[in-house]
Amino acid sequence: MKYFTIGELLYSDTALEKKINNLKTTQEIEDNLRALIENVLEPARVRLGVPIIVTSGYRCPALNSAVGGVATSQHTKGQAADLVCTKLADKRRLFQILSEMDVDQLLYEKNKKGTTWVHVSYAGTKNRHDIRDNYLAL
Questions:
Q1: Residues facing 54 on adjacent strands
Q2: What is the mean pLDDT of the chain?
Q3: Is 32 within 8 Å of 59 (Cβ atoms)?
Q4: Strands 105-110 and 130-136, bridge-based pairing
Q5: Measured CA distances, 137 to 34, 66, 85, 132, 133 (Å)
Q6: SS3 of 135, please?
Q7: What H or E segment, with its residue span, contains residue 66?
Q8: Is the model's pLDDT at 80 over the cut of 70?
């Protein structure tokens, strides 16, 4: 893996601040993270041609709860990542690139403060291709 690491998808500022151990995983979670990286993140980074920043990857149940995630979040399975780019135009292009790939869920999310990011998940052979632009995050 050239551009992304499993460690990057386990890292969380919130976990550090709240003293939550987000590093304890299972083999299944690490396999899911590896599949997300190999099948979605790496190819998207190559096509985009600029860095992609992971703002949230795997979330243990305690971390998921701390950030207000739903209990069924694919983040808790290592199947999802929230992404940003330094330029808005690149973030929009990233969404377009990912929409052409085999993904489970793809959301261009925005919160009440107006912050935007791209949420993408990969479930292997069971991908739903659920793609939504301008999704309002809770």
A1: 83
A2: 95
A3: no
A4: parallel
A5: 26, 15, 18, 12, 12
A6: strand
A7: helix 61-66
A8: yes
Q: Which of 125, 126, 14 minimizes the C-alpha distance to 60?
A: 14
E-assigned strand segments in the chain? 53-56, 80-84, 105-110, 116-121, 130-136
pLDDT score of 138 more than 80: no
Which tokens go with 64? 């998921």
Percent of the chain whose predicted confidence (pLDDT) is above 90:
91
Q: By C-alpha distance, which of 87, 81, 93, 82 is closest to 48?
A: 93
Q: Average of pLDDT values for 91-111?
A: 96
Give pLDDT, residue 127: 97
Write out the two tokens for 74.
């694919």
Task: Using alpha carbons, list the distances in angstroms from residue 109 to 34, 60, 101.
Answer: 24, 21, 18
How many degrees, rounded to 5, is the angle at CA 68 between CA 39 and CA 22? 60
Residues counted in the chain: 138
